Amino acid sequence: PIHWSHSLFVRIRKTIAKFQQMDELTSTEQGRDISRKFVSISKEIRHYEQRLFEQWKETVNAKAMEMLKQRIFRAEIDGKEVPADTPNAKIVVNFHTELTVLIRESKYLDRMGFAVPETALNVTLQEDKYHAYVESLEAMLRAHDAVVASLSPVETELLQTQIIELRGALDKGFKLLNWNSLSIPEFTDSCMKSINKFNAVVKQIQKNASIIKGVVDAISSVELLKPPSTPPGAELPELAELFDDIDKNRQAQLDELLRQYHQIGPLLIKVEEMVVNTNTGASPVLRSYYAYWEREIYAA
């Protein structure tokens, strides 16, 4: 409303300024009456703006303090806030839109010459800092969401402990930190280190899984009884020779598949080392992961 009334006053003032340059009009009684009405309207607009400002000033400090005390994260499902421990909830930066509006209002009122309350003015002067906080936190959460979304169901189960630990690194944003906290940059950096460490483990596990999948695909697509190719016009081999060639080809392919198959065990041990820091080849933590690849190999 203050912006609207002020813009109305500016338009009236521009019109009156042009009018006052016309001596033949301002020297008349009607012209003087218009000038008096302009002065009267100007006062009314100014009083109206002042009343609105006083109403705004009464609550702005309390609003600013309340919103600055809010935690920097909140959890959402389908855009609705839910408890932080709700399964599958999305973590979002909790910088209230009303705080953005308050900053914009304070800047505008300050430029208009109003005495903006100290708390609101201090918040406004730190706009760039809050903007930087929000950007860095959102970038960090995008990195977190991307690595978690890259996991297959079996990888999610395999890395459940690490996922819980990673979520624990973010918990300060729900439980401790608010927009008055001075340690938000350090918190963001610490979270990014945890995300990068987790991502490195995920990439290595997925690299090993890709190699194992290649072995499974090779087993699935092999043709053990493929007859040798005969050039056009060449004599067909004797039956015994044909069987011998087929058997040699079958054995060669079996040997190659066996060589590839024997790579799976060491790859699974590498996964075990990354996940639980052991190399037994029979970790209970990897039970479902072993079972997954057993089913894949059997189905091939």
TrEMBL record:
GO biological process, one term: microtubule-based movement
Gene Ontology MF terms in the entry: dynein intermediate chain binding; dynein light intermediate chain binding
The Dynein heavy chain tail domain, residue ranges: 2-187
Any single GO CC term annotated in Swiss-Prot or TrEMBL for this entry: dynein complex
Transmembrane segments: none
InterPro entries the record matches: DHC, Dynein_heavy_tail
Pfam families: DHC_N1 (PF08385)
Matching PANTHER family: DYNEIN AXONEMAL HEAVY CHAIN 10, DYNEIN HEAVY CHAIN 6, AXONEMAL-LIKE-RELATED
Protein name, as recorded: Dynein heavy chain tail domain-containing protein
Source organism: Chrysotila carterae (Marine alga)
